[in-house]
Fold these 2 entries.
Entry 1:
Amino acid sequence: MTTDLAVRFEAVQDRIRTAERRFQRPPGAVRLLAVSKTQPVAAIAALAAAGQSAFGENYVQEALDKMAELAALALEWHFIGPLQTNKTRSVAEHFAWVHSVDRLKIAQRLSAQRPSALPPLNVCLQVNLDRETTKHGLDEDAVGAVAAQVAALPRLRLRGLMAIPAPTADFVAQRRAFARLRLRQEQLIAAGLALDTLSMGMSDDLEAAVAEGATVVRVGTALFGPRR
Ligand SMILES: *Cc1c(COP(=O)(O)O)cnc(C)c1O
């Protein structure tokens, strides 16, 4: 592995462990999802050799090409990008997780298309916390009803919620947004859903996400360097 990649991998792991300690999270409570979109397979293979097993991709065809090249490695692939109905079959057949389910129809297709030889597909519902700045994700008001319906689909396992808050450099504002996602999750759990995953936090705001209960942080740039 290049020295740069090794140094960044070490630094990101250190940021996560430091945030766990600082915000009284149990050691190892936060998992690192390495967001490898646009990054070369050599970098993925190098991180895999250093012990990283979970990788996140946004573009279906790019991900399928990488999976084929890296088939010899036991990697866990997470789909985290916007998902169109015409791509659900490839995702249902090749990924272990989808973080970006934002409507019932997508969930129904993923469930119907998940091969019976594979375990249920792990999914998170993407929640839109900033209706003005983005159109991706479920409106907060809709999350409860959709979650109940998704949880009932036979070939999916609803694991929790995901969000990408509007970027801000203000730590307090970062925490406030992530806290809203955590509260939504707590409401769903109180309503009887068995959820264990909060997918939130990226290169620039992972500490705030860890403070508010993230169980998975999705990190690209801080790990791989700038995207091409
Ligand atoms: C690209 C991407 C990331 C990683 O973002 P960085 O700022 O590079 O860490 C995380 N989550 C999603 C959904 C992404 O599309």
Entry 2:
Amino acid sequence: MATMHLSAPSVGPLEREYLLRAFDSGWIAPVGPDLDAFERELAATTGVREAVAVASGTAALHLALELVGATAGRSVLVQSLTFVATANAVRYTGATPVFVDSHPDTWTMDPELVADYLARHREDPPAAVVPVDIFGQCADYDALREVCGAHGVPIVQDAAEALGAFHRGQPAGAQGELGVLSFNGNKIITTGGGGALLTDDPRRAARARHLATQAREPAPHYEHTEVGYNYRLGNLPAALGRAQLARLPEIVARKRAIRAQYAAFFSQVPGVDLMPEAAYGTGNAWLTVVTIDPVRCGSTAEELRMALATHGIEARAVWKPMHLQPVYAAAPALDRGVAARLFRQGLCLPSGAGLSEADVDYVIEVVAGALSRRARQLADL
Ligand SMILES: *Cc1c(COP(=O)(O)O)cnc(C)c1O
């Protein structure tokens, strides 16, 4: 049976047309007119002055952290509930990640924990604070900017999952000193693999482009005064990204409709709640995520995941928090147990923009069947 994936890319004739046009132009390199245009269009879409397109969201995070001075001996506050890339990028710089729990109302970095930490570390402040706009919901930037601003600590916004979301009417990605997007295959739009760094500071953009091209100095020969990276995005994937970006409003609208369809069903099911949508913003519904209280619902998230898997439907646990990952077991954590509970109770449901209403109905039918079977089992006990 064909598998219904969690977040399959939505690509079609427009993407094909842009890609072939770029191919025929002869610009098959990490430079070219589509790369320049993609950067301009990304900046316009997110409301920043400059976007620097790179090979991955992880590369964009690494560059952002290097730009704000993350280095060995410094700490960086990182949201614990995230994909491992956020933490790994901190480690690439040599800095120590300090993991911060989520607030239960938003699932994003708890500003109170950040305030506590910064007050206790006036002598050795972190190089950056890295909130994550998890599942396409912006972090609480009013509170985070106030706290970080008071201590002069820059915010690096991991908006890898949040392109097309809004914070107080402003597009996601522009809320920190530096913003990061991902165009991986499962993200809201894809270049087949890619990312971008967003900034209002042209000098930082120039510095990021320099570091991303092996820090080559302007000279007729190859001249290098520092260590750089090979992080630039190619012109072909950028062309694909331009087509996807043109379709962003349509993709987000479809994702939000899918979430509304799930929401209508789960509002009738005791013990199952959708991820809350914060009052300060509008999420892009990258994934529809629910939490399952096994006591009130009768089933656990893992039982539902397995029931869906037997029908060829991919569902997945919420990110396992970084402070519970073996690779980061030794890192300090500001923990109130929220992210750990979301990991235990959370389930991400198929949310690809290509899913039809009937596809989502089928997922709902399988969930409803599993829940009523479980209810009958419990009644028989
Ligand atoms: C996907 C993702 C990244 C990494 O992006 P890549 O393009 O896969 O390198 C970073 N942070 C978060 C929160 C992500 O979801």
